[in-house]
């Protein structure tokens, strides 16, 4: 017998919920109760919707699925408490999310696509064959599962897992709207960061639509030829144009911008690279208090082509940027022992 797949209720935008549920539920207050179970209380089964009559719960159960992932696995770092989650999607692919606890914050780093079509040379996710975009529900389910599993309220979300968020723009924006809605997941805009290698029209739409949500640009190079070597599928976007799009983002949103720069030994980590980066930012008028450069020492993967920069080069690079008036931070790797650090999420 052929089984018919039920729709995933988290894929339904909250504003569509009453029309989608109309055949089952007429009363608006019931819809609001359901929304609350879905997004504020993050119930993982319809059975938990205790203020909803049993027959409606039964109808929901036979019409929808509430969780789509199976075979969920976790690995916990002994170094820093980071947890890497592996989720099997309903079409039997694997995606990853990471829980990053610290004293004051509980952050999750989530995936937006299965595999990544951009294929940055140094990144393991880029080596994982691109299959498809994650749906809005699949994006949200990662956060919900981690919150339920760890028992503490998630206070920040990084769109820095597997995939290129700006190539799954509609679903990412729809998920963010639910994450930041006070009536739904209620996480502050300023605690959400979307990281992208840079799709200019999407950066501009993001600036227009997502005021206050933070943006991080994966720059990683100081000239176009050098960048193309490590990000071959960069849509031939010029660094100058990317930086102009970032400027537009800052002007529109008055928010904060991060420029990410992964340091690859003997490739982009020299003093001349640092000076060139400073000049680039200066000429784009991006040396300002709400712009920060995040230097990311390369986390080695099974890729033999690139190596981690020596500590002394990281410090020198940082110093040069600082002397040029740039706010700079060196990102500490988290969950290195479990393959959960930046760029390690993928099939090994
Ligand atoms: N596709 C998005 C999100 C990627 S992951 C983007 O390109 O921004 C977040 C950051 O980790 C990106 O800046 C990415 O380039 C960087 N990264 C990828 N692999 C890495 C590795 N092995 N070591 C350190 N950083 C890496």
Protein model, in words:
- The radius of gyration is 21 Å and the shape is elongated.
- A ten-stranded mixed sheet has the order 1-2-3-4-7-8-9-10-11-12.
- The chain starts with 16 loop residues before the first helix and ends in an 18-residue tail after the last strand.
- Strand 1 and strand 2 (83-88) form a beta hairpin.
- The chain folds into two domains: 9-63, DNA polymerase, domain 1, CATH 1.10.150.530; 70-338, Aldolase class I (TIM Barrel).
- Helix 5 crosses helix 6, helix 7 runs parallel beside helix 9 (239-253) and helix 10 packs parallel to helix 11.
- It contains eleven helices and twelve strands.
- The chain has helices at residues 17-21, 28-40, 54-63, 124-127, 136-150, 169-180, 200-209, 224-230, 239-253, 271-283, 311-323; strands at 70-76, 83-88, 94-101, 106-109, 113-114, 132-133, 156-159, 192-196, 214-218, 257-263, 291-297, 327-330.
- The protein is of the alpha/beta class and 348 residues long.
- The relative contact order is 0.12.
- Helix content is 34%, strand content 18%.
- Bound molecules: S-adenosyl-L-homocysteine.
- Residues 120, 122-123, 160, 164, 195-197, 218, 260, 262, 296, 298-299, 301, 342-343 line the site of S-adenosyl-L-homocysteine.
